[in-house]
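Box S1 | Example of a co-folding query
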Amino acid sequence: MSVLFQTRKYLFRKPFNNTFCKYVFLRKNSDVPRKFVTFDEIVTQRRLEAQRSLVVQVNSDSSFNELYSYCSKYASINDIHHYKNSGGEHFMLIEFESEDNLKEVLKSCSAHNKDHDMISVQSPFVWFRAAAGKKEKLVAHEKNLAVKNGLEIINEDVLYQELMNCDTVSDQIQLMYDRTTLNDLGIRLRYMVARQLEVIFSSLYSNVRVQPFGSSVNGFGRMGCDLDLILTNTLTEEMSEGGRRLVFQEKRCEGGRGAARHVELAGALLELRVPGAARVVRVLHARVPIVKYAHLYTDLHCDLCYNNLSGAHMSELLWQLGALAPRARALAVLVRRWAARAGLTHAQPGRWLTNFPLTLLVLFFLQQRPALLPPLDLLVRYARKEDVRIAEENINCTFLRDLNKLPPESYGQNDDDLETLLFKFFEFYSQFDFEDKAISINVGKAIRKPNSLPLYIVNPLEQSLNVSRNVSYEECERLKLEVRNAAWHLESCLEGKRADDWGILGLIESKSSRGLKKLLRVGNSHRLVSMKDIFNDDDEPAVEGIRAKLQKYVKNDKEVEDSIKEMKSEMIKEKKSDQITFKNTQTKNEVYRIRRDKIV
Ligand code: CTP
Ligand code: MG
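Box S1 (continued) | Returned holo structure for cytidine-5'-triphosphate
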């Protein structure tokens, strides 16, 4: 019936011109409600957002009105988001209504290079100069900041208390995800950092594209996670059209090692041409050569690689599996955090697990019956012509992209709450036969290990590779031990009464810091005793009494000393932030005297 209506829509449209008819007759096939958006759609939306945005360094969040007023003279503004970096510098990300709007604003920008060493460069990172002479009249508007301090990471003590107040372990896991996961501004800024490279490199590479991948976009990232970037130089269909007879001469990389050489060049450009890029380190001999750098304006640690498209497709795959089962995301975020606390993962690579294989462990567990997630093979089986993707070195990254086409009975068959899933996760790996079996999310079942490496997790897109080949025997043994400990801990929580390590708290906090917190916690207050309560006013810490108490809770003298040192420096920081800064030292002394007088 509806097909008939749709095919005859033009016939019926005129006589039935009301809302009902509009809905029924003008509905296109594409209007059928879709449960899932594709990863490509999200990437496109984020890239467009970045193409019409600008990051402006300002004096403080109160620069908002002046900045809004100034920019709205040139263009229409959608929103302004405020954040601070770790250096205490303030920034505002402005999203304009269109890319043309942004172009108008960029035309109005000036350069400020007084140094002969510097060649000016234009990118979407600018700063807002104080008005020369008389202040301009502000334009009246009703806008507010879309977000203030948008990159603030939740204070650990507040998080601890919120987790303590949860009714169930499932609530704790969900809260942990909601409070620590990468937020909208975090994602916007990552696309801005990518956009900056794209703009700067575009004069050297035609059709250059820089895009974030890894935990910044795969749905498992936390606030402050590193930014993985991929530089690609793919041709559009138009550019590679066979009918065009004049073809550009091109440059093959002399002496081979193309990827490493491009990364090396990117390193030089980062040092010379990219504002905000600092501490550039090239890692050229790795399987995937990368250049690491810090982006000072956004506080991001970035890893840039060249043409590693399979890494980007892998992120898409992880994102898709997370979209099929949002519980997978919450669970994986917690498992990542637990693993870091248990010392199973570290910031630096080495003979231990990293977050990526750890996430595969979670996904594999969720493929066990009753399955929350389908095996990758099923997504490959349902792939269509438009899903074909061939990455570097002919790696086949073809799998179904439009999840609406996946039969609903092939996933989501498990109703377990997060608490049960977490417990079962630890139990599953406590009993897993790591000696003989490999983990493969392609088939969703344990398969025979092809070699004797301690841990074997099949690379889903290059099945001949093991993504955990670096993991040593000792680290694998520690993994087995820690999953058992975690299962025991959760089991004891179900039986016993609530202690201060109740539920996931016992999994994400180290025992020594828990002891310390217990010592410092007062009554029902979530706040620790203020540093000022512990130390004397004249900056001399009253350490002796506290040292004696601390020794009861922490393992050794070094930890006691470290804790005291940490508190001392926090105290000094608190004191500094309390101080008011004055240009004139005489005024400063006066004010300080008055305050002292008042206190007295
Ligand atoms: N990757 C891959 N094959 C590997 C390692 C990594 O395809 N053997 C891809 C994955 O898509 C991964 C991304 O590279 O997500 C980035 O790797 P990494 O930074 O190690 O992991 P993240 O998922 O980004 O986690 P983290 O937050 O620790 O950076
Ligand atoms: Mg990463």
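Residues 1-27, 521-555, 574-600 have pLDDT under 50 and may be disordered. The chain has 22 helices and eleven strands.
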